[in-house]
Amino acid sequence: MIEVEHLHRRYGRKQAVVNVSFTVRRGEIVGLLGPNGAGKSTILRILAAYLPGTSGTVRVAGFDVGRDSLEVRRRIGYMPENNPLYLDLRVREYLKFRARLKGLGFRRSRLRADVVLEQCGLTDVAHQMIGTLSKGYRQRVGLADALIHEPELILLDEPTIGLDPHQIRVFRQLIRDLGREHTILLSSHILHEVEMTSTRVLILNEGRIVVSGTPDELRLRMAGGGQVVAEIQAGRAELEAALENLAPLQECVLSPLDDGYWQVQLTPRTVVDLRPAVYELAVQRQWKLRELALRRHSLEDVFVQMTRGEEEQEGWE
Amino acid sequence: MKVWWILLRRELGAYLMSLTGYVILAVVTFLLGVGFTLVVMAYNGDSVTVPLTELFYSTLFFWLILLVATPVITMRLFAQERAAGTYETLMTAPVGEVEVVMAKFTAGFLFYALMWSPLLACLGIVHHYTGGGSAFDWWPVASTGVGILLMGALYVAIGCLASALTRSQIVAAILSFAMGLTLFLLSFAQYGLETRGGWMADAAGYLSMLDHMEDFVRGVVDTRRVVFYLSLTVLFLFLTVKVVESRRWKQSA
Questions:
Q1: Residue B73 lies in a domain
Q2: Which residue, B76, B89, B154, B211, has fewest beta-carbon neighbours within 10 Å?
Q3: Which domains does chain A have, with CATH numbers?
Q4: Taking 60 as the threshold, does the pLDDT of residue B174 lie above it?
């Protein structure tokens, strides 16, 4: 659906996008993740044929965004950052206008307007002025606009920014529902969001793709299998000696708890689940084991680690 | 063509649903009324041999409305959308640059024409009190209308260009006012150059909007004038299209 090869974009001297290549297949929900100013919006704008790249090729549904920009624009539903809308129109009017603009016929645009009003939970406010709507409703109007011509690809730039937690939850559900029939590329700087909605994540930093994969893959890759936390009743020296021999460890931290228990945090070097080994060890040595858990890293950890790493490299130069 | 029509309706709606639109209409109606009253009072009781339209164009009000109202009408066309960000949603819809520019120009032009409609009422009053018939000649009225529309087309096109160049409505208004005023002041250039003669004075004479209007109000629709305004209008619209397109031009590496 999307093929980006060696995309660069400069704003004056500033490199906003540096050698970005990625593909998005039909039916995927891909999250573009990165701190503010990482180049997410620029990439989306280039995909929406709003801005040209400085170099590189970008194809959407097989069409070059530069040469066949009209064909590309016919096939995408784009919701820009901050979701700009005509505030002097009523919701249904606006959606009908947008549908007509996107080439739908008169009857069809009325029909589709009613469908997306229903789909985005806007039926109650269909005849209200957009200017009088709350942020959450406006956001839904923006999404409804992106959907109205049944595009093959939906591009959403920071779709949940400025929403309250409840609205964010509703919105995420909406995006997940849409993902069943559409290809979606959304950007966010909120990791949790991308983690919840996307089937694949691209992490951007300073215009470069730092890492990509499914949320699970990324978590696994970064955490190296995951840290195991156990609470064991045993002598400290005995415990340390035994755990050292368990597997190649990156880190082993012991902290004392009540009743002679120790909290053990084990971080393996390789991708391995240490829980069975710790259990075996406890049985063998007849230690009391009252907790054993694999701590899954959130994507947040991955994200912080990846983007911090980049900054440190910059600092070294 | 279809996109043009859809956008035109939206743009006209924006004029008629905004306070700015009605403020412009109210101010212009007021100025026209004042100008008209002054003209009628000045010639009250005297017999007038020239058409009334000519008397009216020679007052300052006519030129003031043309010079000040057009930048105010056109300043929002592109600048407001750029500032609000709706320009991005507009231009990522499958619409061509030419269609967008033409729709915005047409909307501005139609609003400009609407703005002059109180003039018809003024003329209607005169028609009524002169008893109609021979005392009132409709032909100069029609040609005056043609002149107003031709000049308006050019000034609205200038305004489109100014608005497309910036995201600030104020800057757009100042820019189009400056361009419009310059064009108007060229009318007076010939008087300065006259004494020296030569091609510069001739050229300035051709550019004189005062002379052009004088022809129009006397009922003379000169093809040269029509071509002058239409070609300049097309030129400024062409430049506007290029400015709108320039966003998508490749940067030089």
A1: yes
A2: B211
A3: 2-221 (3.40.50.300), 227-295 (3.30.70)
A4: yes
Measure the CA–CA gap between A119 and A134, rounded to whole angstroms: 18
Q: Which of B81, B87, B92, B167 would you mutate first to test chain A, the one with the most A CBs within 10 A?
A: B92
Quote the CA–CA distance of B15 and B103 in Å, as a whole number: 13
Cα distances (Å, whole numbers) of residue B156 to A6, B74, B170, B232: 43, 6, 16, 11
pLDDT at A58: 93
Q: Does residue B37 lie in a domain region?
A: yes
B83-130: pLDDT as tens digits: 999 999 999 999 999 999 999 999 999 999 999 988 888 878 777 777
Residue numbers of the domain that contains B54: 2-245
DSSP output for A115-139: HHHHHTT-GGGTTSBGGGS-HHHHH
Q: In terms of residues, how long is chain B?
A: 253
Q: Do A50 and B91 touch (CB under 8 A)?
A: yes
CA atoms within 13 A on the CB side of A87: 12
Separation between Cα atoms, residue A77 and residue B251, nearest integer Å: 26
CB contact under 8 A, A101 and B93: yes
Judged against a pLDDT cut of 70, whether residue A317 lies above it is answered with no
Residue B144 lies in a domain: yes
Which pLDDT does position A175 carry in this prediction? 85
Min Cα distance A173 → chain B (Å) is 24
Number of structural domains in chain B: 1
| CB A179, CB A159: distance < 8 Å | no
Give the C-alpha separation, B40 to A92, whole Å. Answer: 50
Tokens of A229: 């936390």
